[in-house]
Write a structure and sequence with these properties.
The complex is a heterodimer of chains A (319) and B (123). Chain A is an alpha/beta fold. In chain A, 36% of the residues lie in helices and 11% in strands. A three-stranded mixed β-sheet of chain A has the order 3-7-6. Chain A has a two-stranded parallel ribbon with strand order 1-9. In chain A, strands 2-4 form a two-stranded antiparallel ribbon. Chain B has 123 residues and is mainly beta. Chain B starts with 35 loop residues before the first strand and ends in a 25-residue tail after the last helix. The chains are: A alpha/beta (319), B mainly beta (123).
Chain lengths: 319, 123
Amino acid sequence: MTAIRKDILSDQTARDQFLRGVVLLDQEFPGATTQDLHRFLSQNFPHLSLSGADQPVSTYDIFVFWHYVAMGVMLDVGNAAHNGPIFLPWHRMYLIKFEQHLQRVLQNTDFGLPYWDWAEDGKLSSSAQRTTALWTEDFLGESRGNVSSGHLADMQVRLRGMGGNRLESINPRPIQREAGVNYQRLPRVSEVEIALNTKVYDQPPWNGTVEEHRNLLEGWWPNRETTELHNRVHVWVGGDMFPGTSPNDPVFFLNHCNVDRVWEAWMNSNGRDYRPGVGEGPQGHRIDDLMVSIIGDPLRPQDLLDPSQWYSFDDLVVS
Amino acid sequence: MKGLPNKSEVVKVVKGESPLILPVRHAHHHSGHKKSVRIDHYKGREIRVETSYNFFIDGEDKPLHVNVMDNGRVSCHDLPQYSTKSALDLLRRIVDLDDIETVDDELNRPHDSGHDHHDPLNS
């Protein structure tokens, strides 16, 4: 049996297990410290720096670090996880590995990551969007300021991205948010439909100017003054969702699970097509390129186009 | 539990016990100031704009990896989902990003071999 990913706002079991699981991963210290991460960066990514406190890091912190490191692998187009075709498969791999470690600590092989259908909340007024049930102690806690209520009040942020390729090991503190401050509203259903109605996954020049599925879903809309969809959700939540250490806030995984759901809906209609193929397009984004992994074996985009061996979604309809 | 990863898997690469595999043989390790190139075709001719920036905060060089999009907005590696209408706005957001309480830098002390680490969880 594979996991079924469900809407966090409509499935209480998925919600409760997710919240319990992320806290367990944040309180599990598998034997690495920031000294180890510092040494790892010095040896492999000398352009990235880590400074600050010498302290143990949790399993959750290492997932945060992995995302930051993948962003630090700069390619001719984008980096090893963003701003190019690799965006969707890299995050699919990342979520599968995270889901497996949640299954481990929950001792439940059927557990599926929940998603947040943010376009549904995008139907509400701007002020109502940050006061839905999602931002209460029964779900994710406060939408602004320190998260001090509910399960996630037990989580601690230890690594934070700074300006200029710098990572800081800080004194552990609560998750911080500033929902609705940077952007006033969440994405709309009509905007998701624009991304779903494209017929091509990606095309040259494979970057933020392309008006095809991957780029629109990632959120670089060439003709708008703002970023949309996935990007807009990061900016709307703000706080710890803003820098490259954005997985510090578990809402990161709810956002990306929904992004993955939209991609899956698109593939159901348009075929499991990925571009660039073998030998075309920029290196690091091709269908047979190994993707950056620091937890478990790396996978290739071609390994992930059909996720049915790992999970399925309860519903592919976007609001 | 069958089919699930072990906790030990989490630290193998960061502790150097398993190799790090990169997607390209020589990954580009740009330190910033990378040139941003915009190319288009207009009336049958190729037009190309190359842009590079030098950023300073309080006179200190700030090596930011900036991309200029076709509509002229700028985005930055350190704020990966965001763009601003001007490079000055971008630098203001970088100042916001850096505006946190930092702690003593225990990881970059001179002559720190890293072998005498004190682990408060195991003391």
